[in-house]
Design a protein that fits this description.
about 170 residues, about 20% strand, 4 helices, elongated, two-stranded antiparallel ribbon, OB fold (Dihydrolipoamide Acetyltransferase, E2P), alpha+beta
Length: about 170
Amino acid sequence: MGRRFYRRPRARLWFAGVLFALVCVRWYQESRVRSAPSLLEEGVCEVEYVIDGDTIRLTNGARVRLIGVDTPEVHFPDEPQRPAEPWAEEARRYTEDFLAAGSPRLEFDHERKDRFERFLAYVWVDDRLLNESLIRNGLGRARLEFYYSDSRKRLFRHAQDAARDQRIGIWGDD
C-alpha cells in the first residue's frame, strides 16, 4: 500500500510535466502564427527578385508562392547540377516583366502559408492576375487539387484549356 502512494505523485508529476510541455509548444506555434501577418499583409508589395515563375521574394524577406499555378523549375536545391526544366526561364522572365509593369498587389485565400513557409497568394498588377496569365500563356499548369477558391479554379482551368487548345508554351509540340 505504501508503494502505490509514492507512485501516484510521480505519475501526476510526469503527467503535469507533459501537459506543461504541450501547452508551451502550442503557445509557441500560436505566437508564430500571430506574428506572421505583421511580416506580410494584403495589398501593394515590393518585389526584391523573382525566384522562378511561381515564386517571388519581397524586400521584407517574405517568399510568396502563387496559388493555383505550377511553372517549370529553374533550379533544384537538392540537385544543383540538374539543368532548368523546359520553359522555366521563360516563365521566370515573364513573371519579372509582368511585375515590372506596375505595382504588384497581394491577395490571400484560405491558407496563408505552405509547408515550406512561403506565403500563398494571388498576385495582381493593375487589373491583371499573374497566376492566371502564366497559365493562359502556356507557362504553367493549373493546380486544381489544392484548397482555394472554386471560382479561381474555374478561371485557371479555362485558361489552361485555352493554352492547351492553342498549343502554346508547355502545351506545344516541342
